[in-house]
Structure formats: structure tokens, C-alpha cells
Amino acid sequence: MPPATGGGLAESELRPRRGRCGPQAARAAGRDVAARAAARNPKRPARGSRRFETASRWALLALVTLLSFATRFHRLDEPPHICWDETHFGKMGSYYINRTFFFDVHPPLGKMLIGLAGYLSGYDGTFLFQKPGDKYEHHSYMGMRGFCAFLGSWLAPFAYLTVLDLSKSLSAALLTAALLTFDTGCLTLSQYILLDPILMFFIMAAMLSMVKYNSCADRPFSAPWWFWLSLTGVSLAGALGVKFVGLFVILQVGLNTIADLWYLFGDLSLSLVTMGKHLTARVLCLIVLPLALYTATFAVHFMVLSKSGPGDGFFSSAFQARLSGNNLHNASIPEHLAYGSVITVKNLQMAIGYLHSHRHLYPEGIGARQQQVTTYLHKDYNNLWIIKKHNTNSDPLDPSFPVEFVRHGDIIRLEHKETSRNLHSHYHEAPLTRKHYQVTGYGINGTGDSNDFWRIEVVNRKFGNRIKVLRSRIRLIHLVTGCVLGSSGKVLPKWGWEQLEVTCTPYLKETLNSIWNVEDHINPKLPNISLNVLQPSFPEILLESHMVMIWGNNGLKPKDNEFTSKPWHWPINYQGLRFSGVNDTDFRVYLLGNPVVWWLNLLSIALYLLSGSIIAVAMQRGTQVPAEVAGLSQVLLRGGGQVLLGWMLHYFPFFLMGRVLYFHHYFPAMLFSSMLTGILWDTLLRLCAWGLASWPLARGIHAAGILSLLLGTAYSFYLFHPLAYGMVGPLAQDPQSPMAGLRWLDSWEF
């Protein structure tokens, strides 16, 4: 085989080593290859050669890092207005600075870091971040953008180091770094106040740490082994703490760990004590450490966001009692529910609100023409109800009557305080939800009929048979029809004031929208207690936060005038996203991948599947090949297989998701496809050079191929860089536009 060119390592470095390309890559198959190669060339590389290789590695790493930082920080201050989702994540950074509680569908770490970056750079949290296009003016926004650009700048160096360790080839690592440095999509995402560069930073850090830890497999329990194993756990916690997409890289590390332990289990030279140490180390560093750090981010999140804010209504009454400024904070009310109490009843489902009624009737043709019952998100006098016994109209608040507490299984009436009508249901169909029964307000001055009777049930009875404010979860079962009171969450038409539908469902399965809790509680005959003693514990609010986040993720809807996309669009770079501007007079930024990079990545995936299958079949059949070819084949299968698995894990799950999807969701997978491209083309070019060894110019094939790919990638960036750095003037559809010839697909709208 010709000597490695174009920055490649010596042939001895190309052969797989223990743990170098996956979990102890090429341990079994590589031993025979290495033995034959050692027999042919027993001499170690010269010391000067090794020094040159080391210097080359560091020099190229410095070059890659410099280029990455230069491209990410160039024109970072433009445009000086809100772009795309900066309106969300910049606002959330402000909430942290102001300690105002809010709700988001993602875990808190990314937003906390953005808020911290803003605070440390002098931003005071007063900018409103209302809508894209609003100018920042005198507000300090560069600290938050700079922080995201800083983390985004490390993607290319991390990919360089990862591929270098997987392939032992400088040219493969350099090509990978160039693909990411000169990709307009990665560049755009890194220059704004977004979660994506933070997420991708932790994903790549986890991947690099895992590969480095694998490379230390022949030195278990050494300082580098512990360092990289621990750093893998820290990076996993960071990825999951930014977005739940971090679960995909956790799965990849988990599969790697299982394969690693399975190999060790088959090594009969290891004692059971040693195996126990290996297992314990991985449990501590890859399970306990990430969980502890992930939980700690929520502890800090709850500690910092201590003031009432726009996120209160998404959470339970008990949760809201923690927040200063909320009407439940430091309030004093009776602890246990008694007959005659005036109460509000809140649904446990997110964004449903309080059981509500008003004097308006259901219109003709909508069930019985009786008083409407709805749920309403805001505090209101029409949310107040009086709880009474079902079989008496006597006043329980009469001083001559003893206090009688409401208990699990009691038959009750709920009388609307403002209108004196009872909560009522019957066999008429609900306004919007088929096969559910209508719920109305019925009766005069509390006098109605047997359809006003409800059995109150305490779910799980964690706090006993009594009904405890804030804490007890209750269901109301209609005595006549057997249905359970709930809210469908559907918005009523204008006749229902666009409040939410309340129904009585015959399906008795326990769901959050049919479970309620008592929030406000007024009863002059009962002593008050501070709600502080009823506040939930940290594990309870942690669990509730995750339930609300998952519910919110599943319910995400597309924004106005914004294009959603489908997963099959993403690898082909079918359609981008407008970050800023629409008209020819606007400063326009368009999120679109560099088409040369993306289509090369797509081609590489197809070529890898083809070539990898051929090589795997040949090796399985025992085909005899020279040591050099066997070594390169192992690099392709092991190293390429690692990153192909990463691409699959970060891409295919989106086909199963029911939530709204956007183009930027593909970028973590794109990182892995770029690493695969670097490994594949470097290996294929080396195999071509070996196959054409008799040809006089064979020595230059690898160098020429790598150089062509590097120059082509750089030139394509020169052509498409206005997408990331901003365009002004005619749109690409206009023949006079400088971008007119670059609109290669009609679906590109720049």
C-alpha cells in the first residue's frame, strides 16, 4: 500500500487497536491482523516520525478550532433584532434573571445557562422579547449570543478529535471538521440565542468522551480511564438537561456500555471481583452521576424561579403555593373540607383550569337549555362552589350544627355560589364530545333533583378518607348515570365564551382530566393553617414538572405562518426555516444546510451501507485479504458503525413522534452523518490507492481526493454563506438577485 498522504497516519497507526474504534474495537478480529502486520514490519515508527504526527495533530486541531470560532463569531451582532426562537429563549433567560417562574417543554439547563450568560455580560433582564423583528436597541444581547456561539464553535474540534480516535487518520478528522465548519446550517444555529448549540455541544462532548474512554480499555481504572468515563456521564446529564433529545445519546452510550461489559464478561482472565469493579464504575459514572447532576439542575431551577409568573397556571395548586406573589403563597385556609365550605375545584390536567359556571345558558339544540358549566383558567368569583349534603337544604354553617367533614364515598351536592344552581348531569349528549354527557347548572336556590347528586372519591387515599385542600386528588362520580366529571380540554364556541368544555364521561378510567383538587377553601367554623405545611416535597414537584413537560411536548402546535416539516425532508435539505426577514427590504437569514455538505453526507450513508455490507460479508466468509485492507476494513466497520448508529438513533425516532416537527430537529443527526462522511471517504480513497498500487500516480489518489473534497466544501461555503450571515436585496426568485443561481430547489425560499 502507498504511504499515507494528505495528513494520514503511518500504516501501523491505521490498524485497529484494542478499544480504539468502539468498545474495545477490533479486539478479536484485529489480533490476527496485527500479528501478521507485526511479523512483516516489527520495527516501531521512528521517534521523529511520531513527533511529527503528534505535532500535525495539534497543529490541525488549532487550525480547525480557529476557523470554527472565526466563522461563528463573524458578524455575531447582526441582525440587531430578535430572530426566530430568540423570542422564547431570550425571554426565558430574562425570567431567570428576574427569578420569575415560567413553563417550558424542555428541561431547564439550557435556559439557565443562557440567563447566566446574560447576567454575567451585563444584561438586566428588562427586554421584553415580544416578537421576531423587535430591535434590541440599548439592551445587552451579545453575551447570550456569544455564549451560544462559543459552545457551537466547539462542534468541529470535538468532531475532529472523535474521528481521529475512531479512524487514526488526520485526513478523515480534517474532512469531518471542514464539513461542520463550512455548513451554513450549523453556523446559523450557533449564532443566536437558542438551545440547539448547547444541546449539540453536550451531545458531541458525550460522544468524544465515550470514544476516548473506549480507547483506554487496555488501562482500566487508570486516571485517564476514570476521567473520560466521568466526563461521559457529565455530558449525558448536560444533553438531557437541555432537551429530552439527549435521551438518544444516552441510548447510544448505553448500548456501547452493554457491548463493553458483554466482552469483559467473556474474558475468563478477569475475576468476578474485577467484573464487579467494572460494573460498579459504570453504574456510578453513567447512571448515578448523570441522574444526580440532572436532578441538581432542577433543584437550582426551582430555587431560582421563586416568584409567581406566567407558568403558574400549568401546575397544580400545591405547586403554586411555593411561589411568592401567587395568591396561595403564605395563605392560611382550613386544611380539611367540611360541609358548608366555599371552595374552588381545579382540574389536574395542564391548562384546563377551574370548574366554572355563569348565568348564560346552552343554546337551542345543544343538549338541555340549562346553565353552562365550563372550566376557566383564571381566578374568578364564578369559580366558587358550596359543598352540601345531597339530602338536606339546611345551612351547615349554622352555629348550632356541629362541623361535619366530607369523606371519601360521601354523596354530595355542589351549589354554584353566584347563581345558586347545582352541578348537574343527565343523558343529554355533551356539546362537543360524542358519547359524553352534558354537565349543566340546574335548580332554583339549591333545590333540584337526583341528577344533582355526586359521589366524591379520593384517589389513592394517600391522606386518608378526609379531603385535604391542595393535596387530595378527588373524582366526582354522578350517582344516576355513573359517569365521572371531567374536562375534554376542547374550546367551546363563542356562545361558551371560548372556555373549555366540561363533560361527564362514562369511561371511568382514571385520567388527569377527570381528577380534581380543592384549591380555595372558606369555612368560618374551621381553624386556618398555613399552606406552607402543605407544599409538596422536591420529588413531588420534580415528578409534576416532568409530567407537565411531557404533556406540553405532545401538545405542541405549529406557530403562525411557519412551515413545519417531515423527517424525510431533512437529510435531503428539502426546505429551510426563515430566521429573519421576508421581503426584499428586510435583512434575511435563512436556516438551510450547505447543500454540498448535506448531499455528500446523504451519498455517504448510502455508500457506507453498500460497502460496509460487502466488507462484512467478505469477512464473515473468511476471505483472505492483506493486512492493510483488513485494518482499513475494521476502521470502516467499527468506527463508521459507531457514528452510523448515532445518526440512526438521532434521526429515526422522529418518525414515531406525534408532535409538530421542524427542520432544526435534524442537526444532532447531521453531526453524526458528517463524521461518517469523513471516515468513509478517507477509507475508500486509501483502499483505491492500495488497489491501484501498480499505477504510477497511485500515491496521489488519497491526497487528491481529500484535497478536492476540502476545496469543494470551502467553495460551497463561499457561495452559500449569505444564508447564514444575512442577505439584503432581491429575493432569490428575482433573476437580479445574487442568490438566483443558487436556488437549486424550488422549496428553498430565500
From TrEMBL:
All copies of domain MIR, residue ranges: 334-390, 403-459, 464-521
GO BP, one annotated term: reactive gliosis
Region (Disordered): 1-50
Keywords: Endoplasmic reticulum, Glycosyltransferase, Membrane, Repeat, Transferase, Transmembrane, Transmembrane helix
Top EC group: transferase
Reaction(s) catalysed (UniProt annotation): a di-trans,poly-cis-dolichyl beta-D-mannosyl phosphate + L-threonyl-[protein] = 3-O-(alpha-D-mannosyl)-L-threonyl-[protein] + a di-trans,poly-cis-dolichyl phosphate + H(+); a di-trans,poly-cis-dolichyl beta-D-mannosyl phosphate + L-seryl-[protein] = 3-O-(alpha-D-mannosyl)-L-seryl-[protein] + a di-trans,poly-cis-dolichyl phosphate + H(+)
Gene3D superfamilies assigned: 2.80.10.50
Keyword NAD included in the entry's annotation: no
Cellular compartment(s): Endoplasmic reticulum membrane
SUPFAM superfamilies xref list: MIR domain
Superkingdom of origin organism: Eukaryota
MF terms (GO), sorted A to Z: dolichyl-phosphate-mannose-protein mannosyltransferase activity
InterPro entries for this protein: ArnT-like_N, MIR_dom_sf, MIR_motif, PMT-like, PMT_4TMC
Metabolic or biological pathway: Protein modification; protein glycosylation
GO CC aspect terms: cytosol; endoplasmic reticulum membrane; nucleolus; nucleoplasm
Transmembrane portions of the chain: 142-163, 194-213, 225-251, 281-305, 596-619, 639-656, 701-720
EC number(s) from the headed UniProt entry: 2.4.1.109
UniProt main location, coarse: endoplasmic reticulum
Pfam families: MIR, PMT, PMT_4TMC
Membrane topology term: Multi-pass membrane protein
UniProt entry tagged with the keyword Coiled coil: no
Classification via PROSITE patterns: MIR
Biological role: Transfers mannosyl residues to the hydroxyl group of serine or threonine residues. Coexpression of both POMT1 and POMT2 is necessary for enzyme activity, expression of either POMT1 or POMT2 alone is insufficient. Essentially dedicated to O-mannosylation of alpha-DAG1 and few other proteins but not of cadherins and protocaherins. Transfers mannose from Dol-P-mannose to Ser or Thr residues on proteins.
Sequence similarity: Belongs to the glycosyltransferase 39 family.
Protein name: Dolichyl-phosphate-mannose--protein mannosyltransferase
Naturally occurring in which organism (per UniProt): Aotus nancymaae (Ma's night monkey)
Lineage of producing organism: Eukaryota, Metazoa, Chordata, Craniata, Vertebrata
Record gene name: POMT2
